[in-house]
Amino acid sequence: MTATSFKKNFDAVVDNVESVIKGVPAVVRLSLVAMLCEGHILFEDLPGTGKSMLARALAASMTATNNRVQCTPDMLPGDITGSSFLDQRKGDFEFRPGPVFCNVLLADEINRATPKTQSSLLEAMGERRVSADGVTYDLPRPFLVLATQNPIEQAGTFPLPEAQLDRFLFKLAMGYMSRDSEFEVMFDNSVGMSIEEIEGRPGVIDTEDVKAMQSYATTVEVSDEVAYYIVDLVQATRKDPSAGAGGSPRASIALLKASRVLAASDGRSHVYPDDVLAVLKPVLGHRVIMNPDAILRGENMDQLLERVTGAVKPPVSGKGRKGLRSGEDEE
């Protein structure tokens, strides 16, 4: 794997997914970044914005397996991870893998599942394995969880605690489409589902390519100046007067991983400070907790992070600016 081949594969997947998912290029790119970081994504968004289609399109583009679970209050941990059943012919218990045994898992409305069920999924996300009856089963690689929770209809839900939100690499929102994008999607899906088109043809890459890209991303060079820039940004969130709790060391690791993949997606073998800034909000937006006084003053997370980035001076490293939308350097 080289920087050129990494970029070629990355762009091929993005282009394939964008043939179905319209108008949100940054979200599509960040979703693939999360996969290549071996991270997971939490979508807090309204229904019908394309989250399920995104999961299916990603899996189809990479010739990967995908499953979907609809979380409900009566769901048990075994409904996700799998359970042991008595095989009457053999007279012994046999483990039957649950839907978590796939490459891309969509956990729809995760906040409707009970905390016990949520924790079983979060354990699988973190450990990438499932234990049942004293036996450990490894999950397939690559492995990506796209969990969703709706900001409406909160009655009877179990919101994820802040400490568990830290387990997600990114928190994203797709939002409603632009007028032109919705027009295009409306006609693309007027006869049949457009997702079925790309699911009916071979993926542009396969899971072995994804593994090679994951391995290559860990070799992308990060100078000491840029690495300290990441640390200083995270530590600045802990000192901000509006923050009740700042980013954890896990946030620093997430920024480093995501910045490396973003640099590689641009065909570069080294990280720019702008790569860090491009993933700052998706990485830190759900990890930093604002204090009650700041909330009463009407402050929001965007203002806090803008203040943090203004307080930490970026190092002079590389030239040009990396953009999520174009994937090209800007002067």
CATH architecture of the largest domain: 3-Layer(aba) Sandwich
Rg, rounded, reads 20 Å
pLDDT averaged over residues: 88
First CA to last CA: what distance? 28 Å
The SSE order reads: HHEHEHEEEHEEEHEHHHHEHHEHHEE
How are the SSEs ordered, and which strands pair?
Elements: H1 3-18, H2 25-36, E1 41-44, H3 51-61, E2 66-70, H4 78-81, E3 82-87, E4 92-97, E5 104-108, H5 115-127, E6 129-132, E7 135-138, E8 144-149, H6 162-165, E9 170-172, H7 179-188, H8 195-199, H9 207-217, H10 224-239, E10 243-245, H11 249-265, H12 273-284, E11 289-290, H13 292-296, H14 301-311, E12 321-322, E13 329-330
Helix pairs in contact: 1-2, 2-11, 10-11, 11-12
Question: What does it look like?
Answer:
The chain is an alpha/beta fold and 331 residues long. The protein has 2 domains: 3-202, P-loop containing nucleotide triphosphate hydrolases (Rossmann fold, 3-Layer(aba) Sandwich), CATH 3.40.50; 220-330, Orthogonal Bundle (Helicase, Ruva Protein, domain 3). It has 14 helices and 13 strands. It has helices spanning 3-18, 25-36, 51-61, 78-81, 115-127, 162-165, 179-188, 195-199, 207-217, 224-239, 249-265, 273-284, 292-296, 301-311, and strands at residues 41-44, 66-70, 82-87, 92-97, 104-108, 129-132, 135-138, 144-149, 170-172, 243-245, 289-290, 321-322, 329-330. The strands form 5 sheets. A 5-stranded parallel beta sheet has the order 2-5-8-1-9. It has a two-stranded antiparallel sheet with strand order 3-4. A two-stranded antiparallel ribbon has the order 6-7. Helix 2 packs across helix 11 (249-265), helix 10 crosses helix 11 and helix 11 packs across helix 12 (273-284). The longest helix is centred in the last third of the chain and has 17 residues, at 249-265.
